[in-house]
Amino acid sequence: MTDIATQPPKLNWFSRLAHPGNFMTWSKPLLWPLGIATAAIFAIGLYFALLDSPADYQMGETVRIMYIHVPNAWLSQFVYGVMFVASLGTLVWRHPLADVAAKAAAPLGAAFTALALFSGSLWGRPTWGTFWEWDGRMTSTLILFFIYLGIIALWRAFDDQLRAARIVAIVTLVGALDIPVIKFSVDWWNTLHQPASILVAGGPKMPGSILTPLFIMLFAFTFLFLLLHLISMRTVILRRRAESLSRQAAARSA
Amino acid sequence: MSAFLAIISRDLRLAARAGGDALTLVLFFVMVGAVVPFAIGPDRVLLAKLAPGIIWIAAFLSMLLGLDRLFRADDEDGSLLLFRHAGPPLEAVVVAKLVAHWLLTALPVLIASPLLAILLAMDAGAWSRTLLSLAVGTPALTAFGVIGAAVTVSLKRGGLLAPVLILPLCIPVLIFGVATVAAPEGTTAALLFLAALSLVSVAFCPFAAAMALRVGSE
Question: Residue A16 in contact with residue A22, Cβ under 8 Å?
C-alpha cells in the first residue's frame, strides 16, 4: 500500500501550485472569471473615464488620453518587475514555471510599452505641440522598449528553451540593475515630462474626480495583463507539450 | 596571478599574430568619424561642436565590432572548456579577457583619437577632455560588451544579437561620456559618474558573464 518509491515527494503548497501540470489544472477554471472581471472593471473604468469625469481646465478633453496612457506606462514597468522575479525563480530555484512566466511576459511588456509610447505621443501633440521630444521619461521608456525587444530576440534565437531561460534571466537581471541608472541618467540629461504626481509625499496632486477613474483604469489594465499572462503561459506550456509529443512521434516512427 | 597574466598575454599574442585586427579597428574608427563631414557638410564650427559626440559614437561602434570574436574563438577551439576547468575561477578568466579586450579594442581607439580630432577641427582642450572621458568610460563599454558576448556565445547566429542587447544598456555611459566633454571647466560631476559607472560595471560584469558562460556550455 505505502510503497515509498512510487510516492511523489511531499511538496509544499507553493511547489504544488507551481508545478506545470498542476498549473494547467488550476489556471483553467480561473480564465473565465478573470476575463469577466476584467471586462467589468474596464466597463466601469471607461464609463468614468470617458463620460463621467470632468475635462481638464487647461488640456480640455485630451486629458482623457491619460486614462489609457498612465496604466500602460505603469504596466511597462510592472511587467519588467514580473520578469525580474521570474528570472530570480529561474536562476535561484531553476523553476520551470518561472521560465514560462518570463517568456510569456516579454511580448506583453513590449506591447504595453509600445502602447504607452503611442498614447503618450498622441497626448503630446495637442498639449506640448509635438509627437516626440527627447525628454527624460520618454527616452527611458523608449530604451525600455528596446530592452524588451532585445530580450524577445534572445528568446527566439535559442532552440533549447531550458538554456534560453537561464541566459535570458541573466540578461533580465543585468537590465533590471541598469534600468534605474538609465532612468536617472536620462532624466538628468533632459526633462520636459511632468514629475510624478500620484504617489508623492503629501497626497496626490489631482482632484478625486480624475483620480478615481484613473485608479479604476489602472486596476483594469493590471487585470488585463494578469489575464493575458495566464493565457500566454498556458499557450507556452501547451506548445512545449505539442513539440515534445511530435518529437516522441518522430522518434517512434524512425 | 600568473595564470591571469598568461591569459591576457595569450589573447594579445593571438591578436598580434593573426595580424591587423587592431589596425582594422583603428581604420574603422577613423573612417566612421571621417564619413560624418560628408553627411553634414564641411562646416568647421559645426564639426568642432559635434566632434566629441562623433568620436564617442565612432568609439562605441568600434567596440561593438570586435565583440563577436571575444569568446567565440575560444568556444570553437575548446579553450573555453579548459578555462572552465582551469585553476583560476571562471570569473577571473573573464576579467583577464576583459582586460585583454580593452587593450585590443579601446586602447588603439584612444591612440588614434588625435587623428580624428584634427579631421574634425577640435581644439586641444576639447580633445584632451574627450580622451579623458574615453579612457574613463571605455571600461564600462567593454564590460557590457563582455556580458553581451558571453550571453550569445552558444548561439550560432548570435553575431548581431549582442550589440542589440547591450546598446540600450550602454546609453548612460554615452550620456556621461559626452557630458564630461561638455562640462564647464573645473566641474567633475559627470566625470565622477562616468568613473562610477565604469567601476561598478567592471566589478559586476565577470559574475554575470561567467554565469552565462557556465549555462551556455552545459
Answer: yes
